[in-house]
Amino acid sequence: MEVFQKAGGIMTKSNFVIVTPKTKVFDVALAIINGEVSGIPVVDDDKKVVGIITEFDIIRAIKKGKDIKVINTEEIMTKKPITVNEDTALIEIVDILETKHVIRVPVVDKSGKLVGIVSRRDVLKGITEFNGAPQIWL
């Protein structure tokens, strides 16, 4: 399998936003808006992925009457999010995105540290740039 058919070949490796469990949800909302993303990985001090927070998590918190200027990310984030590693096949990532109804998946190393993110856009870009056609399904 070609490298571009794996997470390591298509993932965004830099310039992505991360937050910690103690980040105020209001600040996460601003980061989501400014970064034009739908969700952000939550990492601990060792950069290990401990959660993910999405725009829907924030909207749900507001609907429940929570003050997003007061609450921390850890109070509403999804704990133990789905992750992949750099060798995860593109077809498997597509399956995860489709069946789990997620928009992006954190890519972690063997110790659980965040090394990148694969979004649906990364998948589409990988298919069109390197294959020219979605022949990965064969």
What does this structure look like?
The chain is of the alpha+beta class and 138 residues long. It has a single domain (3-137), classed as CBS-domain, CATH 3.10.580.10. Helix content is 33%, strand content 17%. The chain has helices spanning 7-10, 25-35, 55-63, 90-99, 120-130, and strands spanning 39-43, 49-54, 78-79, 104-108, 114-119. The strands form two sheets. The protein has a three-stranded antiparallel β-sheet with strand order 1-2-3. A two-stranded antiparallel ribbon has the order 4-5. The protein is globular and about 45 Å long.
In short:
The protein is α+β, with helices and mostly antiparallel strands. It has 5 helices and 5 strands; from the N terminus they run ααββαβαββα.
- If helices are DSSP runs of H or I spanning 4 or more residues, what is the number of helices? 5
Ranges where pLDDT stays below 50 over 5 or more residues in a row are: none
For the largest beta-sheet, the strand count, sense and barrel status come to:
3 strands, antiparallel
What is the CATH architecture annotation?
Roll
- The SSE order reads HHEEHEHEEH
Oligomer: single chain
How would you describe this structure in keywords?
CBS-domain; two-stranded antiparallel sheet; 5 strands; alpha+beta; three-stranded antiparallel beta sheet; globular; 138 residues
